[in-house]
Structure formats: C-alpha cells, structure tokens
Amino acid sequence: AQTVTQSQPEMSVQEAETVTLSCTYDTSESDYYLFWYKQPPSRQMILVIRQEAYKQQNATENRFSVNFQKAAKSFSLKISDSQLGDAAMYFCAYRSDNSNSGYALNFGKGTSLLVTP
Amino acid sequence: DTGVSQNPRHKITKRGQNVTFRCDPISEHNRLYWYRQTLGQGPEFLTYFQNEAQLEKSRLLSDRFSAERPKGSFSTLEIQRTEQGDSAMYLCASSRSGANVLTFGAGSRLTVL
Questions:
Q1: How many helices and strands in chain A, by DSSP H and E?
Q2: Which of A61, B7, B45, B52 is buried most, with the most CB atoms less than 10 Å from its CB?
Q3: Sign of torsion, CA B52 A47 B4 B35?
Q4: B39-92 pLDDT per residue, tens
C-alpha cells in the first residue's frame, strides 16, 4: 500500500508571509494523483489543490502552489500571502490511477497550520 | 447542490450498543466513500460504493461494521457491539465516476463510553 508522510505535525506563519508544508509518498506506480486537503476546526475537509503525476507543470490555485518532484516522490504545498482563514489541518493525499489498486485516497497524518497576526 | 450531508453529527453511546450513521451524497454523484478519522490522524479508508454496489472494503472494516447503499443514493454505516476503540469521526465523501476529487461531509463523531 502506498504511504504518505507529512513530517511536520505543526507549522506557524505570520499573516502575509509564505509557508511551505512538506509531503513525501512511497509508491511503485507511475500514474497517480496527489492532493492537498484543508480541514478547518470542526468543519469539513475541502480540496485545496491537486496534481496529476503525468503533468510536469506544478499546479497552482491562486495563493496556493505545489512543488511536485516525481523522482524524489515529494509534493510540497506553498501558501503565499497567508491569511488568518488559512489556519487549519492540511492533509496530503495520494490516489492511484490503477483501478486494480482501488480508488481510495491515502492520507498523511496532517500538518496543523497556525497563522499569527 | 447542498453538499454531502451526514447525520447525526455527534453520537454518544455506551459500549456494546449499536449505532448507525447516514450519509446523503451530492445527488449526481454515483460514488460514495466512508472514512474513519481518529484524533491526530489522517482519514483512513473504510469502504467505497459505486451506485448500490460495494466495490471495495478495507481491512479496517471488521465484521462489526456494515455499510449499505440500497438504492444508490444515501448510505448507512452501522457499527454493532461498539467498543471504545470505535470512537472516531466517521467521514463520508462522494464523487462522480471518473472524477478524482472527493467532496466530503462534515462527519459524524462517535464517542463510545
């Protein structure tokens, strides 16, 4: 089974600054998808950004961007111009593109992001 | 589109009792997923439906757990003879066929005393 590792249990950033959250994964597959989900306190999980492994170009969504290093199996999330509303748990997730491997998302343990004024 | 709805939001029960959670997915989504999330952990996959067919089950889904999606719309997750280790947030998510992105509900929190 593919494993997803988030080595930073907690991170802190000042408002308007930039922060990078780390994620590494282990897989023998070549086709897969990677995601970052955000889970605010007591609220539902929402998608922040996704990346298809076959795409070399890093995905961006407004203030959120990723650094996808396929050979290194690394998928970090950069949040620019951090806002108070960015405070949440952030989960990195992997999904195989092989139907024989199932369609389940494999999540990391999460990184708690604190944003200070 | 009212999103993925889960009920109840919080259930407190005594060990040994049965509990049932309900998930109403987004209406046009034919895939439905159940996950379990314990404190300090990421969500762990339990099971997945495409329409009414349960296509995948995790080893985490012991014989005390059963999930159904009888008409391919809402789904129920029943836990029989609850144990304290079952205390967790149970998350439901849905998606269209072929879509990679899951839409999650707010979750149902189970506390077993």
A1: 0, 12
A2: B45
A3: positive
A4: 889 999 999 999 999 998 998 888 999 999 998 899 999 999 999 999 999 999
Query: Which residue in B9, B32, B55, B104 has the most chain A C-beta atoms within 10 A of its own C-beta, making it the best mutation to test that interface?
Result: B104
Q: Do A43 and B106 touch (CB under 8 A)?
A: yes
Strands B108-112 and B10-13: parallel
- Amino acid (one-letter) located at A55: K
Give the angle subtended at the CA of B4 by the CAs of B6 and A113, to the nearest 5°: 90
- Looking at CA atoms only, how far is residue A16 from chain B in angstroms? 27
CA atoms of B108 and B111, how far apart (whole Å): 10
Q: What is the pLDDT of residues B27-40, one digit of tens each?
A: 999 999 999 999 88
CA dist A50 and A63 (Å) reads 14
Nearest Cα to B33, choosing from B86, B102, B111?
B102
Residue type, B104: F
CA-CA distance, A96 to A103, in Å (whole number)? Answer: 7
Single-letter code of the amino acid located at A17: E
Q: Which of residues 15-74 of B touch A (CB under 8 A)?
A: 31, 33, 35, 40-45, 48, 56, 58
SS3 call for A79: strand
Q: What's the rounded Cα separation, in Å, for the pair A79 and A65?
A: 7
Q: Is the peptide bond before B8 cis (omega within 30 degrees of 0)?
A: yes
- pLDDT by residue (tens digit) across A92-107? 999 988 776 667 899 9
